[in-house]
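Shift notes (night). Ran ArsR family transcriptional regulator while the centrifuge was going.
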Amino acid sequence: MSRPLYQLKAEFFKTLGHPARIRVLELLSQREHAVAEMLPEVGIEAANLSQQLAVLRRAGLVTSRKEGSNVYYSLTSPQVAELLAVARSILTGVLAGQIELLEDLRTAVPGAATEVRAD
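Came back to this:
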């Protein structure tokens, strides 16, 4: 029996649920990268990067090719880059709304303290 689509979607989004994986996908959205190129950009140990790349590979989001001693990764589909762009757009809208709300709160009570203190 096949799994419901909503379950597959949830697993897909779990795959995206790690900051290092998102950073890798952002880098690969620009162009193909060698593992050595990604290490300083992602900011994790080589073994951890390898694990994260394996997760992305198993999920079918990236593909790899070997050239000499270098392993190069690229996205399997340009739609992955589009998904990241949509996520950025959504977050920009959400954050803009939060900034507006904060400004409204600051101006709602003239003379009120701009800083909340925990006593």
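The radius of gyration is 20 Å. Helices lie at 5-15, 19-30, 35-42, 46-58, 78-108.
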